[in-house]
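F.,

This is the one I mentioned.
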């Protein structure tokens, strides 16, 4: 993630040095709105030390539907808040040691699918570069907040709760967090001032799970859109 952010930042700084593609003029419209429709691939991890034998979270797919509004400060820069409904999915497979007092330790194996539905509000700064008369390249970055409306865990899963039992035999049921904060960044192309195609990465900064499971939410989003 850091490498991607660094590359985008370097490209933006490099291109901004060329006045021919950086329009410093005053925008004809101070406020524009657009619709976005996309697909995503996402993942929700747990901390690596929760399950001592095996821990795997596979990426799943979903959809993103939303609107964005550009508050045009200059032709080359805008503040872009948005509002999205998103679906996220994935699968998990965990294996951990189950300590049984007075007996040989056994293992607990579990697997299943995850799905969630979210409202997400990003607020990004967007830089606009004129590559050609009808083509703009956009570089966008900013924070987002995410309200997780519904979480489902097919089969559910349990995790060892060492703090609750001295001999380590206690297990609790996992519960996903209902709120996230993170950063969204990426790039897009705008054709003829209306048609938009983009790719963005969303990196959650808060724990994806409650009760000490940690982990992070993350997603790649591929979208098309229309600016009115």
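My design for it:
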């Amino acid at each position: 993630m850091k490498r991607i952010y660094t590359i985008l930042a370097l490209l933006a700084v490099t291109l901004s040095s060329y006045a021919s593609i950086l329009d410093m003029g005053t925008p004809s419209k101070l406020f524009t709105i657009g619709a976005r429709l996309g697909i995503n691939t996402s993942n929700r991890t747990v901390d690596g030390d929760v399950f001592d034998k095996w821990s795997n979270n596979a990426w799943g797919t979903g959809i993103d539907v939303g609107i964005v509004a550009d508050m045009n400060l200059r032709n080359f820069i805008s503040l872009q808040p948005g509002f999205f409904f998103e679906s996220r999915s994935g699968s998990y497979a965990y294996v951990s040691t189950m300590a049984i007092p007075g007996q040989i330790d056994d293992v607990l194996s579990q697997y299943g699918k995850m799905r969630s539905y979210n409202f997400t509000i990003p607020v990004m700064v967007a830089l606009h570069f004129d590559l050609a008369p009808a083509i703009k390249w956009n570089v966008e970055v900013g924070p987002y907040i995410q309200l997780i409306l519904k979480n489902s865990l097919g089969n559910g899963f349990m995790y060892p709760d060492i703090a609750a039992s001295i001999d380590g035999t206690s297990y609790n049921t996992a519960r996903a967090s209902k709120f996230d904060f993170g950063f969204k960044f990426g790039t897009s192309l705008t054709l003829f001032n209306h048609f938009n195609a983009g790719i963005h990465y969303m990196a959650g900064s808060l724990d994806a799970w409650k009760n000490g499971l940690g982990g992070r939410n993350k997603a790649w989003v591929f979208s098309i859109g229309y600016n009115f």
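The mean pLDDT is 87.

Talk soon.
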